[in-house]
Design a protein that fits this description.
The complex is a heterodimer. By secondary structure, chain A is mainly β. Chain A has helices at 2-10, 30-40, 320-326, 393-397; strands at 21-24, 46-49, 52-55, 58-62, 68-70, 77-80, 86-93, 99-106, 111-116, 121-129, 141-146, 149-154, 157-159, 164-169, 172-177, 180-182, 186-191, 194-199, 202-204, 208-213, 224-229, 232-234, 255-260, 263-268, 271-273, 278-283, 299-303, 307-309, 334-336, 347-349, 355-357, 373-374. In chain A, the strands form two sheets. Chain A has a 20-stranded parallel β-sheet that branches. Chain A has a twelve-stranded mixed β-sheet with strand order 4-7-9-11-14-17-20-23-26-29-31-32. In chain A, helix 2 links the parallel strand 1 and strand 2 (46-49). The two termini of chain A are 26 Å apart. In chain B, 23% of the residues lie in helices and 17% in strands. Chain B has eight helices and ten strands. Chain B has a six-stranded antiparallel β-sheet, covered by helices on one side. In chain B, helix 5 crosses helix 8. The longest helix of chain B has 22 residues, at 2-23. The radius of gyration of chain B is 21 Å and the shape is globular.
């Protein structure tokens, strides 16, 4: 190993013809050995984490294109950040074409794995957990790709995040699938992103299951063209434990699927079960903003065939109890704030669902201004071109 | 293979030079090592200093200071510029000086006064043909050698404020975390607006800088209490925060832009809700609540030492109390 690193050091910044494997074991000096391997890796190389528990004190980072970091499986290779002293995340990736797979991470002090400006990244068979369960002192995001084109999150398990378990922000060409998000504030959140496919996931026991949002005043805006399908979104009734101040802190406990602002979101074939505020919440951004580029309204959010059951029984809203009572003990499956842009219908409901409108009349109003009434929405829409949605095929090809 | 031979040859040259140097003259600064693509194992291989303890800068090193410096747990910093013979730096208005290939920036971090002063680490930035490279070197306890610390290190330090801390030497990637703009490694400190007029004049007169840049809006001297709260606060944010918090920087996704030249209040954080701060927001709704420092995320994070909350994320493990006072005053004085 020492010889290997010395050789690599000499060749440090030149590309090698053959991909190398850098094997790292847990134990004494793991922090330095692992970080050094991540620095000395060349494009195409693999950094292999042998089975065991790695006690780490500082965030790790990877800044070399085309590197695979893989462990022996989420049960066997655990990066333990319980004693972390520095850095804002457990692992930061800032290079393109990186594959991360088959390891677990526990108790990072900030975010779990963040990839920023890291195009074509694969997160596969990973687990990021805060072991103390829901807690405002936990880190914000477990899996956190941002400002990237080409993101595949597949087979990931996340729990305990005080913001979102899987959060994809300011990115495009995204697939999040086959993953389990539990006991986070938001299970899966797609924010200020386009061309995202969220499918075959389980989002359960979070505060909100799946969120699709668009926020103002960010470098990348105009979120939309998102498909949410074939997910199980159940029992998302955990009290909101997000530190106040963040947008998810306003998500009512008992939210199934929420869309805030955004255009063209297609929600179909999900099982949305026992979310006590509402299975589907479709709303405008409700804070003040000063940004000409921003459209705060939902546009063309399609709610197709879904199973929505046992929801809306205890809305986590001011006056929620009377509100539910007024609708016979449970709100109908769709909760809409009543706000719409003139350019496009906010909602199209092709399923046989009823809904309730809060009857707000202006962006920025609160529940205090609500005058709830049954809502109506068009029931047909011409399907738009969805061919470009999801992660590029080359990312799929990288899966073992 | 060819490359290894080349590097070996270079090392031999340096080695030879060092041996010859002992007999005749002090080691020369090695342009070959600076411009190669190697990562030398020791700081001495560059030949920047004439003694093993790096107390005596070699001929060609230009010492410099910044009007407002980055705060690093109160470390003293010894900074030098190296520009290869015959080459000149180009001015670019008030902004970053443009260094020719072959240039090096050297910064040693030290704690302790006078005889008790100890070097902890020396960070070098090398301008090579394919761009800047940043390398961290850690000093040994004997102060006789600084070795490459690619993966960084931690060591116990007593700060000038008397605090016992676990000081963090950054790893090579962490160098880039701050020194990154649009994906490339760049210097941060050497902007004309943050350099003294004396230094700029000296550089021009000695022929190392092509023209004297006109600086209308220089950063204040951080030690000058009469500079005005706004100027001090904005200078501090520019130097300590804006390398990440600007478009193209490491924290661009926050939407916060703390550069000296930014004058859009929202971009600077006035009444700006957090984006991905998580518990770093500390329960506060906005980065800066004018008139109310206690309700401002910026103050909360500067006052914290907890990873995941503390800002800056890298480069400090203790709180800059003086900066906190300035920041609180600045926000308190803002009209609500």
């Amino acid at each position: 190993m020492i010889r290997q690193i010395s050789a690599a050091l000499l060749l440090a910044t030149s590309a090698t013809a053959f991909a190398e494997t850098h094997v790292v074991s847990p134990g004494e000096g793991a922090q330095e050995r692992l970080q050094e391997a991540l620095i000395l890796a060349q494009p195409g190389d693999e950094v292999v984490l042998k089975a065991g528990r790695y006690a780490l004190t500082d965030g790790l980072s990877l800044d070399v294109d085309g590197v695979t970091l893989r462990g022996a499986g989420t049960d066997d290779t655990v990066l333990d950040f319980t004693a972390q002293q520095g850095a804002g995340e457990g692992l930061l990736v800032t290079s393109d074409n990186v594959t991360l797979r088959d390891f677990a991470m526990e108790n990072p002090k900030g975010d779990g794995i963040k990839s920023k400006g890291a195009d074509n990244i694969v997160y596969h068979r990973l687990q990021v957990t805060w072991t103390n369960g829901p807690d405002a002192a936990n880190g914000a995001y477990a899996i956190y790709p941002v400002e990237s084109t080409g993101v595949l999150v597949d087979g990931v398990i996340v729990s305990g995040a005080s913001d979102a378990g899987i959060y994809v922000g300011q990115s495009s060409k995204i697939t999040v699938r086959n993953s389990i998000a539990t006991q986070n504030v938001a299970g899966i959140e797609i924010e200020n992103s386009r061309d995202a496919l969220v499918e075959n996931n389980i989002a359960t026991e979070n505060t909100g299951g799946i969120l699709v949002c668009d926020l103002p005043n960010l470098p990348v805006m105009g979120g939309g063209n998102v498909i949410v399908r074939n997910n199980i979104v159940s029992d998302n009734n955990t009290p909101n434990f997000a530190p106040p101040g963040n947008i998810v802190a306003s998500v009512p406990s008992g939210t199934g699927v929420m869309v805030m602002a955004n255009e063209q979101v297609w929600i179909e074939d999900n099982i949305v079960s026992n979310n006590q505020t509402a299975p589907f919440i479709i709303i405008a951004y409700n804070l003040d903003f000063d940004d000409e580029r921003y459209n705060p309204y939902p546009r063309k959010v399609v709610i197709g065939q879904n199973i929505a059951e046992d929801g809306g029984t205890q809305p986590d809203l001011p006056g929620g109890e009377q509100f539910a009572a007024a609708f016979g003990g449970a709100l109908p499956p769709i909760l809409w704030d009543g706000l719409a842009d003139e350019s496009a219908p906010p909602l199209i409901v092709t399923a046989d669902f009823s809904g309730v409108s809060l009857g707000l009349t202006e962006q920025g109003q609160s529940m205090a201004d609500a005058s709830p009434a049954p809502m109506s929405a068009p029931d047909t829409i011409e399907a738009w071109d969805m061919s470009g949605i999801g992660a590029p095929a080359e990312l799929e090809a990288r899966l073992p | 293979m060819k490359r290894s031979l080349l590097i070996l040859a270079t090392s031999a040259l340096v080695f030879g030079g060092a041996i010859a140097g002992r007999a005749v003259s002090p080691p020369q600064i090695s342009d070959a090592v600076i411009e190669s693509d190697a990562m030398p194992r020791t700081l001495a291989e560059f030949g920047f200093f004439t003694d093993a303890s790096a107390r005596r800068p070699g001929e060609g090193l230009i010492p410099y200071e910044l009007n407002t410096p980055l705060w690093s747990d109160g470390a003293d910093k010894l900074r030098y510029i190296y520009v290869p013979a015959g080459e000149t730096i180009e001015a670019d208005g008030e902004g970053l000086l443009r260094f020719p290939v072959g240039s090096a920036l050297i910064k040693t971090f030290a704690f302790g006064e006078g005889e008790a002063q100890r070097f902890i680490e020396t960070r070098v930035m090398l301008h090579r043909a394919d761009g800047w490279t940043a390398l961290p070197y850690r000093w040994n306890a004997e102060q006789t050698e600084a070795r490459l610390a690619l993966a960084g290190a931690r060591l116990p330090i007593t700060t000038p404020a008397g605090e016992q801390i676990s000081y963090r030497v950054p790893n090579k990637n962490q160098c880039k975390t701050c020194h990154s703009k649009d994906g490339a490694v760049v210097p941060i400190g050497l902007k004309a607006r943050n350099l003294s007029t004396d230094l700029l004049d000296t550089l021009v007169m000695s022929g190392r800088l092509d023209v004297r840049p006109a600086v209308a809006n220089a950063l204040p001297d951080w030690s000058d209490d009469t500079a005005g709260t706004t100027a001090l606060a904005r200078a501090y944010l520019d130097v300590n925060c804006a390398h990440c918090h600007q478009p193209g920087g490491g924290a661009s996704n926050s939407g916060l832009d703390l550069r000296w030249e930014q004058d859009d209040p929202h971009a600077l954080g006035y009444e700006k809700p957090p984006v991905a701060a998580g518990r770093g927001a500390g329960g506060h709704a906005v980065s800066i609540a004018p008139g109310d420092p206690d309700a401002s995320i910026l103050v909360y994070r500067m006052a914290s030492n907890e990873p995941g909350v503390a800002m800056p994320e890298l480069g400090r493990v203790s709180v800059d109390e003086r900066a906190l006072v300035v920041m609180r005053e600045w926000i308190a004085e803002m009209p609500q």
